[in-house]
Amino acid sequence: MARLVMKFGGTSVADIDRIRNVARHVKREVDAGNDVAVVVSAMAGRTNELVAFCRSTSILHDAREYDTVVSAGEQITAGLLAIALQNMGINARSWLGWQIPIHTDAAHGVARITDIRADMLLERFGQGQVAVIAGFQGLAPDNRVATLGRGGSDTSAVAIAAAISAERCDIYTDVDGVYTTDPRIVPTARRLDKVAFEEMLELASLGSKVLQVRSVELAMVHGVRTFVRSSFDDPDAPQTGARNTPIGTLICDEDEIVEKQLVTGIAYTKDEAKITLRRVEDKPGVAAAIFGPLAEAGINVDMISQSKSGRATDMTFTVPTSDYDRSMALIESIRGTVPMESVSGSSEVAKISVVGIGMRSHAGVAAQAFKALASRGINIQLITTSEIKISVLIDAAYTELAMRTLHSIYELDKT
Amino acid sequence: MARLVMKFGGTSVADIDRIRNVARHVKREVDAGNDVAVVVSAMAGRTNELVAFCRSTSILHDAREYDTVVSAGEQITAGLLAIALQNMGINARSWLGWQIPIHTDAAHGVARITDIRADMLLERFGQGQVAVIAGFQGLAPDNRVATLGRGGSDTSAVAIAAAISAERCDIYTDVDGVYTTDPRIVPTARRLDKVAFEEMLELASLGSKVLQVRSVELAMVHGVRTFVRSSFDDPDAPQTGARNTPIGTLICDEDEIVEKQLVTGIAYTKDEAKITLRRVEDKPGVAAAIFGPLAEAGINVDMISQSKSGRATDMTFTVPTSDYDRSMALIESIRGTVPMESVSGSSEVAKISVVGIGMRSHAGVAAQAFKALASRGINIQLITTSEIKISVLIDAAYTELAMRTLHSIYELDKT
Questions:
Q1: Chain A partners of B80 at a C-beta cutoff of 8 Å?
Q2: Mean pLDDT of B233-256
Q3: B391 and chain A in contact, CB less than 8 A
Q4: Are A355 and A264 contacting, i.e. CB atoms less than 8 angstroms apart?
């Protein structure tokens, strides 16, 4: 008998039929003898509707009231799933954030969980009761509802799993796991059986939409084994994965991964734009003069490259595409204090990243990527690297070609 | 400076524009220097949608989970109205039942308020803050959300008014007050300026849809002056009723009504059906043998009349139309133990009631009604009376004629 957290997102609870389907998934785990806590999101579309209500009432709305309105979505799903489970003869009850309670900090709208009281949940497990928990919400120090920010139900699930020392946190979603890359772009992409926390963190922040970055961070800190799987599988089918485990991807400590791959996956994002400043006068404090105003404006600069020629320097960096116009305007406004020859930019770029914990102990992974891209005539505009990641910025037109090329040279299409 | 409760129902908060309109009503009262608590219902249609979700998940649903789901509607409105008020520069915050708290008994789905902690609301009034309270909900002894049953927001408003010793509880609705009778049937019906609690109780339970019976009971017990008015009036218009008071109907203690009318109003309902048992064998215990099974089946018998002829008796009574078929079947099933000649019935009947506290001290009101109805050829099938009410059951085809006749003989069309 194990403790298990099961988390279901908006598309998995989109209507009453889907909620019944979720109840069957839960029943399977209960019948297998597990103590189960289920974490649910709002029914697909509900949160957007409630957010739109707040926005059309006032553009500048009180985050505490926003939380009161928006948290109603998960509340509804939790009650309905409890009813569906009871209807199958399962002892179940719903829990709202303030009832457990799930304590958060005071940052309404983007709150962080500070503490979860698990004693009542554990007591009810002892009575054979399933806990159905409204995700995305907690209780702030002001005794009001706080929400965790979009996608926060993943974070709720991992935090609950840590609090009750669950053996595993199953994240049910509309895909059956984490892939070596986007299968819509690279048809030979493979589902990974296991991914290390650090790798998932890079993959999540690089645009893989499977899990929220914060939930992966939390899982890594608390060592919560997180299993990504599909809610669209037949809930009553036998679990038929390798070694009789269900189909999905386990995100776990790297020690649990016996055969470490050199490269685990190829991620991409088109959500960054490039800005190039030519022949900036090179003197101390110039970088601060450029990046200071961007930081003050809340613009997140990602990749930066600088190359000196004589007494001037060329500087290229990336910003989120949504901040591109604002960034260009800001740069124009500082040209009086920071002399430069020209400013140019493009949002027609893509960032491609090669991720793998195996890189730590193997040299030459980056060189292999650069050589392969060059052989395809793909020009690299920017490069950044970390211990387990290489990212390159290229012309967006080459995205698919670059991804297929890299996916192939690291032999990700082979099992 | 007075304390005021303002309650807005579902049609008054049906969309964001209507919520903004409510905010303007609130602003008017705040600007006049009042301490204001606003009680809101769910946006029109929301509660029905949530109830339908529960029903389609399972016909037999846990009332505690039903309450969790359905109470989300008022939660959403409370947050949105707080945002709308803040947007007008008014200091406001939303309160959910569990936050105040509004304590209820354990009867989930049809809970009764047992106690309201008013200290936090009063403290915030001292800081100039408007309280926006989710109606229809409270906190049950099990630390879970409880709802008060349909229309419970009226009850919430009156209970809050009692708890904070409000000078008045304003119920904003889609009509501008309580009328002498239904204006759709009797065009000369007049809005009443004042109605005594006892009269309103009779009018409410007799089919006037303006206020929930329970809220009127509560207002009477606690002496809460309750003012029914329209939310469709221009919120910014000067208050132009008699003696510079707003237009509406005040429900108050009869001592506050200086010029007492003999008759205050004529109510009607078509929601009752008649059942007649002919030549029932008359012996001790026969009434119990007939009405016992109906009571056990939860069928509410209203009017009863019995007339003896020889050793047999005729018995006529009314039941809610929705229970008519079930009642007829029950009566058939007891004919073995209670011999009777025949059973007949009809749902084509209407109950017309004449209500007025003035009747207490004036004889002849009933005789006047019987005479007027007879002169119109309207046959009275059943009669019941109380201290301040006379009800007659007639053929439904004569409903309009009977109401116009009674409205006229008691001079209700004259001011």
A1: 53-54, 57, 65, 69
A2: 79
A3: no
A4: yes
Residues present in chain B in total: 415
Strand segments (E) across B265-348: 265-269, 272-281, 304-309, 312-320, 342-346
Residue window 168-227, chain A: list those with CB within 8 Å of chain B: none
Residues 6+ apart with CB under 8 A from B265: B178, B179, B180, B181, B192, B195, B199, B203, B208, B355, B356, B412
Q: What percent of chain A clears pLDDT 70, i.e. is strictly above it?
A: 97
Q: How far apart are CA A46 and CA B50, in angstroms?
A: 12
Give the strand pairing for B194-196 and B249-252.
parallel
Please give, rounded to a whole number of angstroms, the shortest distance from the CA of A54 to a CA of chain B: 6
- On whether any CB of chain A is under 8 Å from the CB of B99, the answer is yes
Question: Of the given ranges (A128-137, A258-267, A329-338, A398-407), which has the lowest mean pLDDT?
Answer: A258-267
CB atoms within 10 A of CB A217: 17
Q: Does B42 touch chain A (CB under 8 A)?
A: no
Unique residue bearing structure tokens 């207002």: B219
Q: What is the pLDDT of residues A224-257, one digit of tens each?
A: 999 999 988 888 877 655 555 789 999 999 999 9
Same domain for A245 and A275?
no
Q: How far is B296 from chain A (nearest CA, A)?
A: 27
Interface A-B: count of C-beta contacts within 8 A: 116
**Pairing status of strand B35-40 against strand B3-8:** parallel
Residue with tokens 């891209």: A373
Which of A203, A222, A254 terminates a domain? The answer is: A254
Shortest CB distance from A144 goes to which of B66, B87, B99? B99
The closest of B58, B50, B52 to B74, measured between CA atoms, is B50
| In contact, B137 and B40? CB cutoff 8 Å | no
**DSSP letter at B208?**
-
Provide the whole-model pTM: 0.87
Same domain, yes or no: A82 and A176: yes
Are residues A230 and A173 in contact, defined by beta-carbon separation less than 8 angstroms? Answer: yes
DSSP H helices, A146-285, are 152-163, 197-205, 213-222
Give CA–CA dist B314/B307, Å, rounded: 5
B94 touches chain A (CB under 8 A): yes
The pLDDT of residue A26 is above 90: yes
Lowest mean pLDDT segment, chosen from A59-63, A80-84, A88-92, B104-108:
A59-63
A93/B65 Cβ within 8 A: yes
Query: Is A303 found in the same domain as A267?
Result: yes
B217 and B361 share one domain:
no
A residues 234-263 closer than 8 Å to B (CB): none
Taking an 8 Å cut-off on Cβ atoms, the answer to whether A54 and B20 are in contact is no
Supply the ipTM of this predicted assembly. Answer: 0.85
Nearest C-alpha of chain A: how many angstroms from B118? Answer: 16
List the Cα angle A310/A311/A315 in 5-degree steps. Answer: 90
Does A173 lie in the same domain as A128? yes
Q: What is the dihedral of CA A286, A291, A296, A297, to 10 degrees?
A: 130
Among A68, A79, A143, whose Cβ lies nearest the Cβ of B69? Answer: A79
Q: Output the six-digit token pair for B37.
A: 């608590």
Number of structural domains in chain A: 2
CB contact under 8 A, B99 and A56: no
A54 touches chain B (CB under 8 A): yes
Taking the C-alpha atoms of B17, B23, B28 and B30 in order, what is their torsion angle to the nearest 10 degrees? Answer: -170
Question: Is the Cβ pair A57, B143 closer than 8 Å?
Answer: no
DSSP E strand boundaries for A176-328: 194-196, 226-230, 249-252, 265-269, 272-281, 304-309, 312-320
Q: Of the candidates B254, B283, B316, which is a domain's last residue?
A: B254
Angle at the Cα of B254 from the Cα atoms of B249 and B257, rounded to 5 degrees: 60
Residue A176 sits in which domain range?
A: 3-254
Same-domain check for residues A216 and A170 = yes
Q: What is the pLDDT of residues A196-235, one digit of tens each?
A: 999 999 888 776 678 888 899 999 999 999 999 998 888 8
